[in-house]
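Students often ask why we bother encoding 3D structure as a string. The short answer is that it lets us treat folding as translation between two languages. Here is a chain of 287 residues written in the first language.
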Amino acid sequence: MPELPEVEALAAFLRENAAGKVVARIDVATISVLKTFDPPLTAFGGLSVTSISRHGKFLDLDCDGLHLVVHLARAGWLRWSDSLSPRPMKPGKGPLALRVRFADGSGFDLTEAGTRKKLAVYAVRDVTDVPGIARLGVDPLSDEFTQDRLASLLAAAGRSQIKGVLRDQSVIAGIGNAYSDEVLHAARLSPFHPASTLTEEETAALHAVIVGELSAALERAHGLAARDLKDSKRSSMRVHGRAGETCPVCGDTVREVSFADSSLQYCATCQTSGKILADRRMSRLLK
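And here it is in the second language, the structure alphabet:
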């Protein structure tokens, strides 16, 4: 799933390649991807891309006051072309969901792999009309994300598991499954540690790790073409997606806990004092 660093890198890529261009048309190949009906996509024809920004994991193209907002979900992606094919799209065929064509022939496709279609596109006049944006929490790379702010968020979360708190977009915007695994590994915290029980020192360390991990990921993504961002993210992961491999910090085996629709990876030596987490939905430390 594209998370804060990848979406910010895509926004930077579009600022460089799409800003100032005139929209020729927007075509939908998979009707379920479009979550709004007013304004219609035809209203974007002839408008210029005035700015591109990110809100959490949402990508926002401002076109003369109308906003095309994209959430790539788990398996969505943006594929840029300097010269889009002139052939019409085939609705419902393959991974293609939506195409934005600019007047100079360039543009991008939004695609989604797999059968679980969650990619979402919104055409709105105000970005806060997108429900997911309206309820976003603090951006972890903003000046508002201080150590004190994190401490208050953890206290408000009570005994909720820290992994879930980090992924909750209404608490902290932009961190998903992958970077929450990486953050907790770097902070040497169990994914099931109760949020409100972190000490002041642990909270300070967690704050530094969140900012450091995301900033480093942004730096790695800087200047990369959209097509290269996925590989860059995968290659940088220490534990996420590396179950069965060796932890690069301590040499232990990276382990996994699987749920119905997701999984997490962790290092028992680094994060749980050597204890193995039970691999079931209601996971708890094995005694």
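Translate back mentally: The chain is about 30% helix and 20% strand. Keep this in mind for the problem set.
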